Amino acid sequence: MNIFRLVGDMSHLLAIIILLMKMWKSRSVAGISGKSQILFAIVFTTRYLDLFTSFVSIYNTSMKVFFIGTSYVTVYFIYQHFKPTYDSNHDTFRVEFLIVPVGGLAFLVNHEFSLLEILWTFSIYLESVAILPQLFMVSKTGEAESITSHYLFALGSYRALYLLNWIYRYYFEGFFDLIAVVAGCVQTILYCDFFYLYITKVLKGKKISLPA
Amino acid sequence: KKDARVKDEL
Predict the structure, then answer these.
(1) Residue A46: which of A129, A131, A155, A122 has the closest Cα?
(2) Which tens digit of pLDDT belongs to each residue from A54-96?
(3) Is B4 on the interface with A (CB under 8 A)?
(4) Is A143 helix (H, G, I), strand (E, B) or coil?
(5) How far apart are CA A200 and CA A37, in angstroms?
(6) Nearest residue on chain B to A13, judged by CA atoms?
(7) Interface confidence (ipTM) of the complex
(8) C-alpha distance from residue A170 to each of A9, A114, A143, A162, B1 (Å)
(9) CB-based contact A130:A153 (threshold 8 Å)
(10) Percent helix, strand and coil across chain A, each rounded to 5?
(11) Closest to B5 (Cβ–Cβ): which among A64, A162, A177?
(12) How far apart are alpha carbons A148 and A153 in whole angstroms?
């Protein structure tokens, strides 16, 4: 565990907590893409099946359980508890265009042709694009609340920090995983436009609003 | 060993 990995994990944890707090305090899921959140629930479920097969550490296990659990709570909030506030008209990204190609790719490009390994690979690929319905929603409505922007920034930072973690691990531990690194790069690149808006607008006290 | 690959990461 190096500093980049730890701060990355904390950033990921913070993103999830920000999102849950936003929904709970405002009693609303406005501006949040239910489709992205369903994708994240699928990502965590397919990646952390190794909870049943291997034990790494208390830290590892509790984070995995937390990520899976909160992802289902989030989906429940959007589609049940706060359903009247869910903006489905603007959440129109076609997720099958992500799931089908990503599933095919995981089947073709993986480290080992076994069920758990293919599901893990699928999860890594899917995570890299899972935010697209959310980014699509922001661009469609042309705005994002500050709290949603903070969520997206924390969530995007997490994978960017993992990239630094992988550079560190490559040099000091000889560790290198091409699938994770390529997917991590794709994931981080998808956030670049948002990072720019966040730094130039949200940090100066303005909310993100795009020209129509 | 391959099995220990990314499994310690989240």
Answers:
(1) A122
(2) 999 999 999 999 999 999 999 999 999 999 999 999 999 999 9
(3) no
(4) strand
(5) 26
(6) B10
(7) 0.81
(8) 19, 26, 39, 12, 15
(9) no
(10) 75, 0, 20
(11) A177
(12) 9
